[in-house]
Amino acid sequence: MRATRVRATGVAALAVFLAVITGCSSQILRIYPMQKQQTVAVGKSVVLTCQAETQDPALVTQPQWKDPKGFVINEAAPGTRPEIYTEAMPAKQSQLLYISSITQAMAGNYTCVATYTNMPLSASVVLDTFVAITWVNANENQFATKGKDFKIMCEVTAEPAPSVDWFKEGTTIVTSDRYVIHANGLLIKNVEESDDGTYTCRAVVIQTGELAERNIKLEVYTAPEMEEREPRVEIKEGESAAITCKARGKPPPTYSWIKANTRENLATTSRYSVNDNTGLLTIDRVEAGDYGKYICSAVNQAGQNETEIEVEVLVPPKIFELFNTTAAEKTDGRLECKATGRPAPRISFRKRSNNDPFLNGPNEEGRIIIESSSRQTGDQMQSSAVISIARLNRTDDGLYECIAENEGGEARKNGHLTVQFKPTFEHMSNVPVWSWNSQPVNISCIAESIPNATIKWKFHEYDLIESPHVKIYGSGPISYVTVVPVDRNLYGVYKCIATNTLGEAEHIMQLREAFPPGPVLQVKQDTITATSVSFNIVGPAEDMGPPTLAFTTQYKENGNFDWNLSMNRTWSVNSPYIVENLTPMFTYDFRFAAVNQVGAGSWGAPITVVMPRRSPPEQPKWREAISSESLIHGKFADRYELQWKIPAHNGEPIDMYEVNYCPVLKVSGEWRVASETQCMVEELRSYEAISYEVRGLHPDTRYRMQVRAHNVLGYSLPAQLYVQTALGNPNGSTSIFQWAPSKMDILTTLLLLYFII
């Protein structure tokens, strides 16, 4: 047996020797990849190639793969793909081994075998497996709640087992008071909003050198926190209203509204709508009953919060009661006004003839008192107020306005307080009624009273009886008598007697016969020019007749004895009594008479007036009363308009006006012309000129301005005034402006200084 083994060993050695000699050492099988030991992650796909490397491939059989247990791995049947199979490549004398998803059970020594001219060939490779890093429970988005503990889950599996580290946005996290690193995650105690961010869970397998990181975004949810707002809102009846509710929270909360007293979800009612994303509560056509407490609730994943809002419905006042009332003078009267609304209306009274309302409480030292009260009636408040007036007088009569006000609006209504009083004739005149030449007249009587009075007439203390010449019209409160005084016995005292339930009053009227006025008592000559004369007239006494309405005069040249050829002039009473267009140096006779509604009285004795000779015109008069020494402040910086009245021409027509103006300065209380060379003269060749605008003036400068009238006999005395122009630029604006002085201005200033010194 031993000899047999020796022979066999010798044969094998000989074969090896022969192979070396003949070059058979190059006949081998090679496995690709060429590593003798390969490590593959569980679940990965593997492909191994076994290829014969020989000088004559035809002498090599097709290689085969054997699993770690020595079983041949077969090729896949057509249309199938098992977990492990082979695939031949005859052209290359290769055999491919496919493992679609390696498992730990598949680890081991895989061998490829073939023969070369009956010589066995083999090659093997060891496949080791490992479990790669796997994230089992590590969602990339996780959510924590503020104020609570939270574990960021990060479970990692690997074979060999990995070590795990934690980072927050690049900063290493270690176990501390707030952080605890567990095998399956990072525990954060009492989560804060600042914990929001990105965390990195890092796994390392030292044996394999595998490194993996998982970024986990942590969002910190916060429970809704209601924003501060006014706890009370006011909305108006009949309008649409919107009530807002806001809460801060993460994620944004959703909202709901309920009415506190009914616990009704307002999103399900017809007139209400709720936006659950914005918290807006909308009420359509607000009703009075919508007042009360409302609860807004905000909810998110972190919690729930709510706030209570008091809603006040503003219902504009409505006055439903205010009755007119009547009371007698010197008694007490009252008006009551009632109104509804929400909140309770404030009621006040105002007499329509006054702007200001009465005060609540006593007025006029307690004679007028306003009292008010309010109470709840259903969904609204009812207010009432009473105005009480003691010792009524006639001035209390009239319309009283009730004003009801609240935050929703106001209402107004008028009530009439009628104060009854006995008849009075306080507004009747005592002026006599005049008649002449049997002219018919009306004697009127108007009695003021409440209730209306009835009227009867008396004449000479007897009841007035109608006749063809006396007629009575109306029995009250207005009545009048028509009298045709064909007989002087119808002149005299007529008495109107008015009566109502509260008393009686009478009014006396005189029917008197009228005559023309008596002669004028006195006429004096007042002002005389060459062509005009004015008079002062004292009229006749009016005791026996109607008042004087006018004065009339006749005038003629002295020496002409026929008054029928005279001229005349009539003036109303109290007007200027002036006769114009007379001839200079003539002598005139004037006589005067008074005129009333009957006619003109008798002429008084004539007076004679001698007209002066012709002369220059009278001094012009300014259209407005202006003192010749006072200083007028003009509106413009560069101009001023002079306005005057046309003076008497004194016998010769005015042919022009002269306007002159000079800069002046007041020195020691007197006006002085600074320089005659600066005086300007303008001529207006028109009789009818009554105004002139002086232009080219300097700002903030004082001027003396004069106007003289001229006729062929010379100049009148000047009308004079002093003007100071306004500050500003030469265009007339009133902004401050400093004008550059000219050489003439400098000279003027020097001369003024000379006068001052």
Provide the fold topology.
Blueprint: H1 2-22, E1 28-32, E2 37-41, E3 46-53, E4 64-66, E5 84-89, E6 94-99, E7 108-116, E8 119-137, E9 141-145, E10 150-153, E11 155-159, E12 163-168, E13 171-173, E14 179-182, E15 185-188, E16 197-205, E17 210-226, E18 232-236, E19 241-243, E20 247-250, E21 254-259, E22 264-265, E23 272-274, E24 281-283, E25 292-300, E26 303-322, E27 325-328, E28 333-342, E29 346-351, E30 361-363, E31 368-377, E32 380-389, E33 398-406, E34 409-424, E35 433-435, E36 441-446, E37 448-450, E38 454-459, E39 462-463, E40 470-473, E41 478-483, E42 492-500, E43 503-513, E44 522-528, E45 533-538, E46 550-557, E47 567-572, E48 577-579, E49 587-595, E50 607-610, E51 621-622, E52 631-633, E53 639-645, E54 656-667, E55 670-673, E56 680-684, E57 691-695, E58 702-711, E59 714-715, E60 719-724, H2 743-756
Parallel strand pairs: 2-8, 9-17, 18-26, 27-34, 35-43, 52-60
Antiparallel strand pairs: 1-3, 3-6, 4-7, 5-6, 7-8, 8-11, 10-15, 12-13, 12-16, 14-15, 16-17, 17-20, 19-24, 21-22, 21-25, 23-24, 25-26, 26-28, 28-32, 29-33, 30-31, 31-32, 33-34, 34-37, 36-41, 38-39, 38-42, 40-41, 42-43, 44-45, 45-48, 46-47, 46-49, 49-50, 51-53, 53-57, 54-55, 54-56, 54-58, 58-59, ...
Description of the structure:
It is a single chain. The protein contains 2 helices and 60 strands. The protein has 7 domains: 24-130, Immunoglobulins (Immunoglobulin-like), CATH 2.60.40.10; 138-222, Immunoglobulin-like (Sandwich); 227-313, Immunoglobulin-like, CATH 2.60.40; 323-421, Immunoglobulins (Immunoglobulin-like, Sandwich), CATH 2.60.40.10; 425-513, Sandwich (Immunoglobulin-like); 522-610, Immunoglobulin-like; 621-756, Immunoglobulins (Immunoglobulin-like, Sandwich), CATH 2.60.40. A hairpin with a 2-residue loop joins strand 54 and strand 55 (670-673). The strands form 13 sheets. Strands 18, 21, 22, 25, 26, 28, 30, 31 and 32 form a 9-stranded mixed beta sheet that branches. By secondary structure, the chain is mainly β. It comes from Papilio xuthus. Residues 33-118, 120-217, 224-312, 317-418, 423-512 form the Ig-like domain. Keywords: Cell adhesion, Disulfide bond, Glycoprotein, Immunoglobulin domain, Membrane, Repeat, Secreted, Signal, Transmembrane, Transmembrane helix.
